[in-house]
Amino acid sequence: MRLLLIEDEKALGNALRDYLLAQGHATDWVENITDADAAMASTPYDVVLLDLNLPDGHGVDLLRGLRRRGDVTPCIILTAQDQITDRIQGLNAGADDYLVKPFDLGELHARLSAVARRYAGNPNPLLSIGNVDIDLARRVIFVAGLRVDLTAREWALLDQFARRPGATLSKPQLEEALYEFGAEIESNTVEVYISRLRKKIGSNLISTLRGVGYRLEG
What we know:
The chain is of the alpha/beta class and 218 residues long. A hairpin with a 3-residue loop joins β13 (206-209) and β14 (213-216). The protein folds into two domains: 2-118, Rossmann fold (3-Layer(aba) Sandwich), CATH 3.40.50; 126-216, Arc Repressor Mutant, subunit A (Orthogonal Bundle). 33% of the residues are buried. It starts with a strand and ends with a strand. The longest helix is centred in the middle third of the chain and has 16 residues, at 105-120. It has eight helices and 14 strands. The strands form four sheets. A five-stranded parallel sheet has the order 2-1-3-6-7, sandwiched between helices.
């Protein structure tokens, strides 16, 4: 997934970005509302992770502005404010979930995946295609009953397909899932990772539509 992390606490921001990148999610990290607006104007995100107390304003105001503009990007609020009224305010502003600091990183990832699946229209984390079984929640895959290990970027690519089975994804869409903001993108990177995935899960599972993109069959 391509994520936008809006967090002004540097130690926490660094830790969250490193963790999410290690989980295979391209993660852009900004520290204020101004930079968040600029990032969202130029990049489509799968989920926004939003702190509330930011140097140039309140996260709820940012979220309300997004929803007023018709932006339906899923949003999870991350905050130290644990009052029920704060939670109600955030959810009523359009947040999809709410985590109070300090939180467990594993719980954050589980909630992140659940929110993304709901928006993709398939809340079920289990997907079976032929002899391939994918568990998106546990991040495990079995081919003919045998577990297959994927790298973080291979998972990032497979996650895009698994959340949209049968949909055709363009090369730019897949590149967005592989790289954090500002990272150099080589011209053949998507092709390289598609080739690696085919070797691991089956050559006929991912189809190439020349000039259009790629599709997970089944």
